[in-house]
Amino acid sequence: MRLAFTHEHRNGGAEWQKRDLFEWITDIFEAPGIKLKSRCTPAIRQHIATEFRNEGWGQDVKIDQDLNLTISAMKDDLAFQLQTGNISRAPYDLLKLQHLFQSDRIEAAALAVPTRAAAAIIGSNVANAERVCKEMTAFDRVITVPILLIAFE
User: Is 88 helix (H, G, I), strand (E, B) or coil?
Assistant: First the structure.
């Protein structure tokens, strides 16, 4: 697995840079030991969870006490979400991050998804960075949380 590219939505990358966390979070995706193949998501998720846990991030954080909705990780005023599943889940992830932002629980977020080519290797109809970038741009008046999109392959 390797970092393919990043995309900033509403200066999301700058927020991670201000906290000296941009290189850390993008370096997580430089993991040559993880080979992208069908059904490789457990290895990706385990690697990322370990990296966040080692830095003291809360994992599988509930975003609302009344609902069983979680995000991958959260620490201080930042949230992180990994999406390696169906493309229909990605807009829902954006909605969850927006909710945290509007609830004043976070100031910025990062969302990691595979590139279109990597998504095709991982499985059928998997979320991909190119599409998520287009959706964030199309809904920029609705999705106002600063997001760093991390594309990996």
Answer: coil
Single-letter amino acid code for the residue at 139 = F
CA distance 133 to 130: 5
Q: Tokens 């991982």 identify what position? A: 122
Q: How far is CA 100 from CA 1, 6, 8, 104, 134, in A?
A: 29, 22, 18, 6, 22
- For residue range 78-133, list pLDDT tens digits in order: 999 999 999 999 999 999 999 999 999 999 999 999 999 999 999 999 999 999 99
Where helices occur in 55-115 by DSSP H, the ranges are: 89-102
Asked whether the beta carbons of 72 and 93 are under 8 A apart, the reply is no
CATH node for 3-147: 3.40.91.20
Q: Residue 47 class from Cβ within 10 Å (0-12 exposed, 13-18 middle, 19+ buried)?
A: middle
pTM of the model: 0.96
The contacts of residue 5 (CB under 8 Å, 6+ apart) are: 115, 129, 151
CA distance 81 to 139: 18
Distance CA 93, CA 11 (A): 18
Q: Distance between CA 146 and CA 102 in Å, rounded?
A: 11
Read off the tokens for 26: 């993008």
